[in-house]
Specification:
- With 181 residues, the chain is of the alpha+beta class.
- It contains two helices and ten strands.
- It has one domain: 2-Layer Sandwich (Alpha-D-Glucose-1,6-Bisphosphate, Chain A, domain 4).
- Strands 1, 2, 3, 4, 5, 6, 7, 8, 9 and 10 form a ten-stranded mixed sheet that branches.
- The longest helix has 23 residues.
Length: 181
């Protein structure tokens, strides 16, 4: 039986493995001068990717309507020297707005390969990715992410900590940007 394993905890960022192929991430952002709730939408998701162009080789977001988008991400080939394939994500994302919470629910589109992906790149099969943005105040947002990969996905143990470090880098950049708007 799996138990939660803390992989990274620093600078207000926590990344852990809940069970096999199920990861959690938590952090918060605060800006006393700016109402952060005004930017919790698909443009924020795009900004996250744009601030991290050393991690993503290609980013494409097709906003279908105010509550749905199709996102294609091609990661840099981090593990090429280890013989692991380059990875990409191709997800359908839905936004759900509640009174004090904004959700983003995503899952992989498995039956279509997006155009422009290198032939050797493999789909990161995400069964479900849920991002919850709890609005503590308009100036303070608590973010919680649950990432559940397809049960047949193999994630090497050494890669878990590296993924956590990459996510921490992304988090720090976005946090710095958001807190200094």
């Amino acid at each position: 039986m799996d138990t939660e394993l803390l992989l990274i905890e620093k600078d207000g960022f926590k990344f852990s493995r809940e069970t096999k192929n199920h990861y959690k991430m938590n952090f918060s952002m605060e800006n006393k001068k700016f109402d952060l709730t005004k930017i919790i939408d698909f443009k924020l998701i795009k900004l996250i990717y744009d601030l991290n162009n050393d991690i993503y080789e290609k980013v494409d977001m097709n906003i279908l309507n105010e509550n749905e988008a199709i996102v294609t991400l091609l990661m840099k080939h981090f593990f090429e020297d280890l013989g692991l394939p380059q990875k990409f994500s191709y997800v359908h994302m839905k936004k759900i707005v509640e009174e004090r919470r904004i959700w983003f629910k995503s899952s992989s589109i498995k039956n279509i390969r997006p155009e422009g992906m290198p032939e050797e790149a493999e789909l990161m099969k995400i069964q479900e990715l849920i991002t919850i943005c709890d609005i503590i105040t308009p100036h303070n947002i608590q973010f919680s992410l649950n990432i559940i990969f397809d049960p047949n996905t193999y994630i090497p143990v050494f890669a878990e900590k590296m993924v956590g470090l990459i996510l921490n880098k992304i988090f720090k950049r976005v946090k710095l940007f958001m807190e200094n708007i």
